[in-house]
Amino acid sequence: MTIEVRPASVFEDTRTLLGPKSLASTVCWCLSHRIPAKLSNELRGPARSEYVAELCRKQPPPGVLAYDGGEPVGWAAVAPRSDTSFARSRKIPHVDDLPVWSLWCVRVRPGHRKKGISHALIAGAVEFARAQGAPVIEAYPLDNGDARVDLTMAYAGIRKNFERAGFTHAADTTSVLAGHPRVLMRLDLRCPSAAPARPSAPNRRHPVRVVHGRPSAG
Fold this sequence. Notes:
Distance between the termini: 17 Å
Oligomer: single chain
Number of helices: 5
Low-confidence stretches: 199-205, 214-218
């Protein structure tokens, strides 16, 4: 079985990863860092799902999805930092003035973990940003060392997974999540000789394919 990573252009697949069982329920929908807090508080229930559906129809879409045998199993949020709250954060510094992209959420569905999907999502997000012309991509993972991380709070990713994908430590931050400090990790996409990010320690039964186009129906 091949894991494919595609742009999140299909709302129903994005809903599988981010939405509640009932569209009337109010959940994050991975909007907390994407839109201003005031707007996030105003969007309740169906209004949140409608907002995400509109994001999926736009170019570029709001992130990437991982598919295992055609089933959506993972999500990564990636967008220009200028379009996110990280552009105004007092806890996460700006290393320079480049128009960087941010990768801030990696999520794998229960029952599909330990297959290398999170690594595939990071690689797919990098290639997605690269295809959009991003000069640099940043992430803000937990620097947890060997300590366990509560899966519900692990959406930011962990440092070692980004290091395996070629990211390097660019700065410390004053942000803390689940009791662990977060660090600013970067990957420069401008160097032609730089190898594209690859999933680390891939599951050999699940090779990875990064696709830049829209998934076909069905």
